[in-house]
Model the fold of this input.
Amino acid sequence: MSGCESYRALARFYDCLNPEVDYAAWADFIEECFARWLPLRPELVLDLACGTGSMTLELARRGYDMIGVDGSADMLAEAYARAGSGILFLQQDMRSFELYGTVGAVVCCLDSLNYLLGEGELSVCFALVHNYLDPGGLFLFDMNTPRKFREVYGCNDYILEGELPAPPGGSPATIYCGWQNRFDPSTGLCDFDLSLFEECPDGSYRRTDEHQRERCYGMEEILATLRGAHLEPLGVFADWRFSPPDSQTDRWYFVARANKPESQKGS
Done:
């Protein structure tokens, strides 16, 4: 996520409300991209907008040195609690993050870049990614498609249910999330109003509310912004099997390479 107040209420519940995300299979796709487009396996990888660190930890388990960057202190607290001190986590905005040097690859998962709302913010983020990539390094990210904004989000409402892990000697707590979407095609902005209900030990429920917003980007705009940041698009896929996208694709998976002189390094 970018450096906003989103995910303050949702941080503790994010993973239990998204159990369908197969991070191991997603990491398999990432490693296949490394094998296809890098001459050597990268040693240092940045997980940009790392959230609660699920992908950061998955890649760390596979032997990569990981850096996790996220704008939400609450999400990073969850990540750090799971990972401990073995991974460097930094609270920084996607539009202004700074690293100590370059990395071999940058990954950015779960439509985090759709949270960049303002004119030119995607370009600023891509320029920073380019700056902190080794020459020839890979940038892997996904974004929600216009179809998803129109048809899945639209003005539709959903109810999500999950369970928090049980504390020692206790029982798991049930979580309900009321999710209201309002997509405005004229601006490309989609507002999400979330109401979270957490089961308490006495059987009552505690309610917290959160508002989020994403921006819809078109394919050509994304590709042009990549090229403008000297990131060469290598492929756009509909899934982790490298299928080509079509009119029914809800999520685009992009792979891009940093083009710059060998002597150029990030600050």
User: Anything to note?
Assistant: The radius of gyration is 19 Å. Residues 144 and 251 are 5 Å apart (CA to CA). The domain at 149-215 is CATH 2.20.25.110 (N-terminal domain of TfIIb). The helical segments are 23-37, 54-61, 73-83, 121-132, 146-153, 219-228.
